[in-house]
Write a structure and sequence with these properties.
Blueprint: H1 2-7, H2 9-17, H3 23-43, H4 52-70, H5 80-97, H6 103-108, H7 113-116, H8 119-149, H9 154-184
Helix pairs in contact: 2-3, 3-4, 4-5, 5-8, 8-9
Protein name: DUF3159 domain-containing protein
Keywords: Membrane, Transmembrane, Transmembrane helix
Length: about 180
């Protein structure tokens, strides 16, 4: 669970720092964290396929930070948090569309080679990635609706942001255990 928190740290920083519509600080923090984490992981020898979210984060925050300092008012206005989670949804759905679920590379680092070769390994990771994709999509839509209808409902906005990451993270931790138990039975 901690590794997922670390992976999404740039997004969490952006979400916290841009809650009141200030994209510049949040985008810069997200970009800096994404680059630092990406460099640290590459230095540790992690393969690129295990760093899909990290690489996607660096690209998104680089673009957003640049736009936030060049375009006035800030790009996406109050909808920055919804757009950022929408980017994650596109990343997750895209990885499924090309049949390379973003969780595959991460899971390969935690499982023995004989498990990685099984079709079940792919299906489990496709399912986990699909849950993340749905969660990101619902999170983006929920944030967009809240920001449109109740932009000052900070507690509700923060709750949607937290649930949008915590629930799929819990599923990610539990689902492989459930599948292993079923397979063993």
């Amino acid at each position: 669970m901690i590794s997922y928190l670390r992976t999404f740290l740039p997004w969490i920083a952006f979400a916290v720092l841009s809650t009141n519509g200030e994209a510049r600080i949040g985008a810069l923090a997200g970009f800096a964290l994404a680059v630092v984490l990406l460099l640290m992981d590459r230095r540790k020898g992690r393969a690129w396929d295990a760093l899909v979210i990290e690489a996607s984060s660096a690209v998104f925050f680089a673009g957003l930070a640049l736009a936030a300092f060049v375009i006035a008012p800030a790009p996406f206005g109050e909808y920055g948090p919804a757009v950022s989670v929408g980017w994650l949804a596109v990343t997750a759905w895209g990885s499924l569309a090309i049949r390379r679920p973003f969780t595959l590379g991460i899971a390969r680092g935690m499982t023995p080679p004989e498990v990685q070769a099984s079709p079940l390994f792919y299906r489990v990771n496709a399912t986990i990635t699909a849950v993340w994709a749905v969660a990101f999509t619902l999170n983006a839509v929920g944030l967009a609706v809240l920001l449109a209808l109740a932009p000052h409902a900070t507690i509700a906005i923060i709750a949607v942001k937290i649930c949008g990451f915590a629930l799929p993270a819990l599923f990610t931790v539990r689902y492989p255990k459930i599948v292993r138990a079923r397979y063993a039975a």
